[in-house]
Amino acid sequence: MTANDKIISYEPMIHSIVQQLNILYDKDEYMQVGRIAVYEAVNKFDPAKTLCSESQFVYTLIRQRLIDEIRRVSRYQERNSLVKNESLSNTSSDDSYNLENTAVKVLNEREYRWFTLTASGYSLTEIAPLLKVSPSTVKNIRKSARDKLRGSFTP
Q: Which segment of the chain is annotated as a signal peptide (predicted)?
C-alpha cells in the first residue's frame, strides 16, 4: 500500500477529528494539515517501539498537529488583527508621535517599556524576560497600559 493510499484511507479519521475540534472555517487547510500528519505518522510508525496500533498512532499525531495549527493561527490572528480601510485613511504621520508623547506622560516606567517593546514587534513571551517578570505579569502591565492610554484619548 502506497503512502497516497494510506492518506486516502485515513481521510475519514481526519474529517472526524476536524469535526471534534469544531473547526468551522478553512476546513480545507486543516484537512491538508491532517493529511501531512498522516504521511509523517505512517513514515514514523514503528510497531517494535510502541504498544499502540498504527491507527492509534496516526490518530494521536493528526489531533496534535491540528491543535498546534489552531494555536498557531490563533496567535497570528491575535498579533495581526484586521483593520477597516476607513481607519487607515484617517491616520496621519503625527499619530504615532502623539501616541508616543501621550505614552511618555501617562504610563509608568514598566508600562512605557512594555509599550516601546510592543511597538518594536516583540511578543508577550519575548517581553517577559526583558522585563524580568512572568508572561502573566506582562499581560497585567499590558492591560494597565492600554487602559491608561484609552483613558487619555477619550474626552
A: none
Question: Quick one: pLDDT at residue 101?
Answer: 77
Q: Which domain holds residue 147?
A: 95-153
Residue keyed to cell 526583558: 130
Whether residues 14 and 74 fall in one domain: yes
What is the SS3 assignment for 120? Answer: coil
Asked if residue 27 lies in contact with residue 14, where contact means CB atoms within 8 angstroms, the answer is no
End-to-end CA distance of the chain: 70
Cα separation, 83 vs 140, whole angstroms = 25
DSSP letter (8 states) at residue 6: H
Domain count, the chain: 2
Same domain, 12 and 85: yes
Residue 93: strand, helix, or coil:
coil
Q: What is the CA radius of gyration of the chain?
A: 23
